[in-house]
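Q: A reviewer asked whether we had any structural model of the full assembly, not just the individual parts. We don't, so I'm hoping you can provide one. Inputs are below.
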Amino acid sequence: MRTDHPARLVVRVLVAAVLAGFALFFVLPMVWLVLAATKTPAGLIQDNPLSPGSIAALLDNWRHLMSFQDGTVATWMGNSVLYAALSVALTLLVSIPAGYALALTRFRGRRLLLVVTLVVMLMPATALVLPIFLEFSYLGLVNTTASVVLPMSFFPFGVYLTYIYFSTSVPAELLDSARLDGCGESATFARVALPLAKPVVALVAFFSFVTNWNNFFLPYVMLPDSDNYPMQVGLTQMLAATPTFNPVVGANAEVQPPELVLATLLSITPVLLVFLFSQRFLVAGLTAGATKG
Amino acid sequence: MSAPAMAAAGSRAGSRSRAWRPAAGHVFVSGYVVLLVAFGLVPTAYALNLAFTDAGGRFAGLANFVRTAQDHRFLAAVGHVGTYLALWLVTLTVLVLALALLVHRLAAAWSRAVLRFVYYVPGALAGASSVLLWLFMLDPSVSPIDGVVRTLWGSTFVAVVAPGHLPWLFTIIAFWTGAGGWIVIMYGALNSIPHEVIEAARVDGAGPLRTALRVQLPMLRKWIVYMLILSLAAGTQLFVEPQLISQASFGVVGTDYSLNQLAYLYAFDQNDFNGSAAIAIDLLIVALCCAGLFVAKGGLFDAD
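A: Here is a predicted structure for the entire assembly that you could use as a starting point for your response.
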């Protein structure tokens, strides 16, 4: 009935074209990244950008990548996993109860804490990186795991997300009735609020993991020792050793472009896996509220 | 301890202990408050202290601010970041809302799910990874979109990353990594609008466009404000993109393109932590003013 009208049809085609065009924009670089990792250095330049290379070239690139500075890439990946996992665990431990309390309980200083959280959330991270560096330098903790994990665990965005979720999706009456039924504060949180909070827990965990995994500036300043680099900082060291982007390294370059591509691919794989694993939660968490049974 | 036992203990203890005991809320926020103080408030106070003192720790008034603002690199960096922010925030808002509304209107559930997924996947890339990928995308010799790159910006990588192009390039990188997440969030917020409201608008004769402008967008206001504030905060932090591009640009782009790069140079090249802190405080004040405006206009505390 609606598609009969020619003007409507034109609009539909236009909408489809726009949506498909943006889909291409988002997906094309990723496709290229996967394909380029399977090419030889010469093939990367000469072949069609969207043609596949060969398994042999991929294995070759992998071998070169793993032998780069005696396997330092594996160390960087391990560091990234360690830093991100520890800070996500700490973030969840402190953010979920805090967001819950801000949204659904009343206590002195609550409004002040909300405002301070919002303000700190808005502060450019760089404004804090330098003073935090000095703080850790004073404590003698620079170049330690704690010097990146602890600051990364402070995630006001997560607290705010939890606060928004609880204050918009969980009715206060639900908790009041739990309290009337004899639940203490901790039991109300653990038995009523926490099960309802699964979507926001997944959401905060995901965002904090992605943020921490991709964090560049803090480890860049905090960790002078290459052995402690996470993958993100390590990538810049590889960039500096690639002839395409740094002519100074010349012919005997340590890193060829396809190896840099493979390293980039490697650096995003864990986040992609976590995303695929938690995608259902993410969408459900953003849409479903407790009131909609 | 069972809940009734706790309640009984509470009533026996009477009003004296109630005055002493912190509220349950205090216990729940305690861990967060410790982190907030250690990595939010103390460093901020320290930065303020540094910004208003000289290298010897004596009070310096506004000297650090004046000195850094008179640095010829400072005004240039302000212009760079300002141009980028204007371009980025406008592009982000318009495209994210348009795409979220369009995806939300699609009839087939599978196409909505596929598009949300496809738009969101690049969100996995940020920081150095996304910049590196885009260095390749912008290099005409290997890029799959080399035709587009050549037409818009030039036929060599060095021509492409000319300083005048950078606000556009940074906007594209930031949109590519960040927009999908916001599209998913806006989509979720659109889903949470009660069906009856949309139905009522339709019965009243509103078409899709008017429903979007008069009903859906106003109901998303809180989320739009939220997006703008976070994107602004992220935008003023511009660091890794120009840092990597300057490293790969054969010297076309200096390491003083953005304000944060300048703050970094002050601290680590010139050993001038006071000047660095002054720039950091400048950035903070700008971000706070804009955020305050958004909060006041957007009713972010409506939930109270």
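A: Points you may want to mention in the reply: Residues 22 and 162 of chain B are 59 Å apart (CA to CA). Chain B touches chain A through 108 residues (CB under 8 Å).
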